Structures are given as C-alpha cells and as structure tokens.
Amino acid sequence: MDRRKGPILTTGESSASTGRPRSEEAHRAILDATLELLAEVGFSALTVEGVASRAGVGKATIYRRWASKLPLVVEAFGALPGMEDFDTGDLGEDLKKMLRSYIQVFNTTALSAVLPSLAGERAHNPELAKVFEPVSLERRGPLVRAFERAVARGEISPEVDLALAGDLVVGPIAVCLFFKGGRLSPRMVGPMVDLALAGILDGGGASG
Known about the structure:
The protein is built from eleven helices and no strands. The protein is mainly α. It folds into two domains: 70 residues, Tetracycline Repressor, domain 2 (Orthogonal Bundle); 113 residues, Tetracycline Repressor, domain 2, CATH 1.10.357. α2 crosses α7, α6 packs antiparallel against α9 and α6 packs antiparallel against α11. The longest helix is centred in the first third of the chain and has 26 residues. It starts with 10 loop residues before the first helix and ends in a 5-residue tail after the last helix.
C-alpha cells in the first residue's frame, strides 16, 4: 500500500467532516450562546465577542452571518417556541389551549429570561424596537387567527378590534410578569380568558 496517499474517506465521512453540517452546527451554537448571554447579562451588556467565546467560534464567523448583535439577537429570539395554534371550533377553548401551552413553554425555556430582557430594552432602544416589532407580531399570529376564525363562525362581531381583543386576553400575563414578578401558572388561564371574552362578547355586539 502506498502510505503517502493517506486514509481514504467514505462519502459519509467526507460530508460529515466538511461543509454544511459543520456550518449548521456553528450557527446553532451561536444562537444558543446568544440566548444564554441574554438571560445572564441582558441585551446592553451582550457583545459579539462574548457570544463568540461562549459558542467556541471566531468573531468573523458571526459577522459573516450577522452584521451586528442586533439581527443576531432578533434571530435567536425568533427561534424560541411561540404560541401554538389550536382550532377546536370554539374561541374560548382555542385560547385556553394556546395559552396553557405557551405558559408551559415560557416556564421551561430561555423565553422566561429573554423576553423580559428584550421588552425592557426596546423601551429606550428605537433601533431594537423597530427590528423586534415584526418578529413580535409574527409570534402573535396564532392569537390573531383564533379571533379571525371566531369572526368567521359568528362567535364575535366583525366590528371587534381583534388586535385589542388579543391584548385584553394576554394582558394579565404581562401584568404578572412585569409588575407582580410572579411565575406564570397555567391555572390563571381559565379565569383570564373567561373574563376577557365576557367583556369582548358583551361589548362587541356578538351574534347570538
């Protein structure tokens, strides 16, 4: 055997050691590191250098993918689980299933630390607020769609402001999170949805 030629790689070995899998692994490591540091130090103190060190990559690897920490943070946040869409045929049940599922995700992922951090920062960071807003709206999509289905079924009036109705439903979560400092509990969902819908249905002129 000619020892100068070195080991012969199979196709599987070649693809596993070069190219796309390695790139995707680095991408995931960077996003994970970003979320960890957001939870630990917040947006203001987070640096590309810190993310690179935590992820075990060079700064150049990050800058090839993101121009600055802002789009990096927004992508990392957007990759976190959001509200799951449920279609039971009843608005109240859709909302209850959706919010119980969301609270479970909130309490068991980085979302519980990252969301308050970004929400607080966007209040005095116009650039972050501008980029963060479309991501936030997209994550509320299942909530809006649940109300749109309810309008189509005749459960609520088409005159109802659906964005405001959504705010009324999830408002207690924000109050608990930002003002009471309590842990979100699935037990709050039933009364929260029932009270909000009572006002929406009564004030929106719902069909009978």
